[in-house]
Specification:
The protein is about 75% helix and about 0% strand. It is an all-alpha fold. It has one domain: Arp2/3 complex 21 kDa subunit ARPC3. Helix 4 packs across helix 6. The radius of gyration is 24 Å and the shape is globular. Keywords: Membrane, Transmembrane, Transmembrane helix. InterPro entries: DUF2232.
Length: about 230
């Protein structure tokens, strides 16, 4: 007969050992900042104020990453998407999540790791450009017409007028028009992300969640003291 007295029973794992608990403060801040992000998008959609509110689109979710971690930021972006789905429908919700929810999570991660401004602006601008083309693709499907063709037509007319002023009689080629269109999208996103960084620098410092310091020329231009 085997001796069972030498084998003490192993204690069963507690639920907290297998499933890490989430702090109530994290849950509250995630819900609050996700609601804030959704509200900013909601107000800007129905009462557009130009670029005034657009620069705040990624800030609440990026702040979640800076204050907590990637999980909180992802949950905040998902919660914002779900809330906007209820308020505005799935199409407008997707247009927030891609690119702004995605951009906010990436920005928060890069800022928390101390990435330099040129790196964060470049990566976030690429995400913004992807979101721009995704928006055109999705709206083209919903409307049943190719909106990109309309956009390139407008750019072609602009380039033709510039060519005429420069004394160039040859019309711009389709490839040249497409390249100019893509460069314009990238340039627009670079300017937008630079403004986002400036607003984040001023706001998040006051919220005790600072982002990496700007390049020296920006500090001189803004007379900003570290």
């Amino acid at each position: 007969m085997s001796d069972f007295s030498n084998h003490s029973p192993q204690p069963s794992p507690k639920p907290s050992d297998s499933f890490p608990s989430v702090s109530p403060l994290v849950m509250v801040e995630t819900a609050f900042l996700a609601s804030t992000a959704s509200l900013i998008w909601f107000i800007n959609y129905y009462f557009p104020l130009g670029p005034l509110l657009r620069v705040f689109f990624p800030l609440p979710i990026a702040l979640l990453y800076l204050r907590w971690d990637r999980r909180a930021a992802i949950m905040g972006a998902v919660t914002s998407g779900l809330l906007l789905t209820v308020l505005m429908g799935p199409t407008r919700s997707i247009l927030y999540v891609i690119p702004y929810g995605w951009m906010a999570v990436v920005l928060g991660g890069l800022w928390k790791r101390g990435a330099k401004w040129p790196v964060t602006v470049a990566i976030a601008s690429l995400i913004g450009a992807i979101g721009f083309f995704f928006r055109y693709w999705l709206l083209s499907i919903l409307l049943g017409r190719d909106l990109w063709v309309y956009a390139t037509t407008q750019i072609a007319q602009l380039l033709e007028s510039i060519f005429i002023r420069l004394g160039i009689l040859a019309p711009p080629s389709l490839l040249f028009i497409q390249i100019v269109a893509v460069l314009m999208v990238l340039a627009n996103n670079i300017v937008y992300l630079f403004l986002v960084h400036l607003v984040s620098l001023l706001m998040l410092d006051r919220l005790k969640s600072p982002i990496p310091r700007p390049p020296r020329w920006v500090q001189i231009l803004l007379d900003y003291e570290e």
